[in-house]
Amino acid sequence: MINEIRLKHFKCFELLNLPLTNLTMLSGSNASGKSSIMQCLVLLHQTMVEHEWSNRLVLNGHTLQLGTAQDVIDKVHGRHSFELGISLGENSFDWSFSGEREDMSLEIKNVTVNTEYLKNPEKLQYLLPYGKNLPVSELAQRLYSLTYITAERIGPRDYYPLEDELNAQVVGPKGEHSISLLYSKRDKKVSDRVAIKPIAPTLINQVQAWMQCFFPKCELTVEKVAKINAVTLGLRTSNDTNFHRPIHVGFGLTQILPIIVASLAADVGDMLLIENPEVHLHPSGQVLMGQFLAAIADSGVQVVLETHSDHILNGIRRSVKNRNISENNVTLHYVRAREEDHDQVITPQIDEQGNIDFWPEGFFDQFDKDINFFAGWGD
User: Fold this and answer.
1) CB proximity list for 310: less than 8 A, separation 6 or greater
2) CATH architecture of 1-145+268-379
3) CB count, 10 Å around CB of 261?
4) For 114-146, what is each residue's pLDDT tens digit?
C-alpha cells in the first residue's frame, strides 16, 4: 500500500507530507488542492503507461492534460522544478523534475530509491532505475495499474467501443472503457469480501447486484454488436419493461456504473483514485457509496476519494461503527487554500464508533451553519 505522498513546489503546495491508508478521503473548498494530490500520482501513471522508457515526466497524455511547466510548478516558491516522493511500505521513492516555463514535459533530474541516489539518470524503466538491484517492481506495478476516475464522466451512449484488453485495462478517466471492461471481464471472480451473496461471484452478476442496491430492481445487459468492435448497454428498473437504451433510464445509473465496475474488477493491491463519487446520487445513495467504497478498501484495494458530500463521509463513518472497516484504515484530510497563518491540510481523527475528534471551520459544517441561521443563532 502507498502510505505517503511527499510534494515540494508542486502546484499550490510549497511542502506537503500526506499519509495515506486503505481508504483516504480528501475534502475541502474548491481550488484548495485536492485534485492536485491525485494528479501527482496520475502523472506518474500516465508516463509509465504511455512512455515506458521515458526520462521525462509527461504532463499531457490520454489520461491527464496539465499544460506546461509553469502550470505545475508552484508559482510562489518554486522556480524551475518540483519534487515528488512516495512511500510504499518500508521503501521510499523520490524524484526531482525540472523544465523551462513552456516545456510540456519535465526532465528527471534525479531519482532516489531509499538511499540509492541517481543524478541525471540515463536509463529508466517506468521512471525507476533499470538494471539495479532495487525494490522498484512493486511500485511500478501499483502505479501502472492505477485507476483514475474524474468527476466529468461520460453520459449515456447508444453503443460503446469494444477495446482490446491490452489497450483498456481500466475503466478510463471518464469511464469511457467501463462497458468494454465489463463485457471482456464479465466472468472474472469478484472478491468474496465484497460479493453479495447468494449472487454468483462473477463481475457481471455482482455489478448488477450492487447497482440494485443503489437503484432497486435495476437490471443490465451488455451485448456485442455483430460485425463491429462495439457493445451495447441495456438497462431497466422494472421487470415489466424491456431493456432500454441508457439515455432513457436516469443519468445517475451511467454516472456510478464506472465506479462500481472499476471497484469490483480491481485486484488486491490495486489503487483507485475517484473524484466526486456522489455525482447525480440521491443523499441515501451517497451514504451507500461511502459504505461501498469502505467495503472495497477493506477488501485490499486502496481507495483515495475526493468529495464535497457529507453523506459520503457519513457512509464511511457508519462503516467504521459497524466494524466493516477499521478506523485505523481510514484517513480524513481537510485541504484548505494556502495561507501563511495555517496548515494547508488538517487531518481529523475518526474513532471506532465513527466519531470525529474535531471539525475544523469549513469541514462539512454548512448544514449546522444554515440551521443556526434559521434558528436566529448566526448570521
Assistant:
1) 364, 367
2) 3-Layer(aba) Sandwich (3.40)
3) 28
4) 999 999 998 999 999 998 888 999 999 999 999
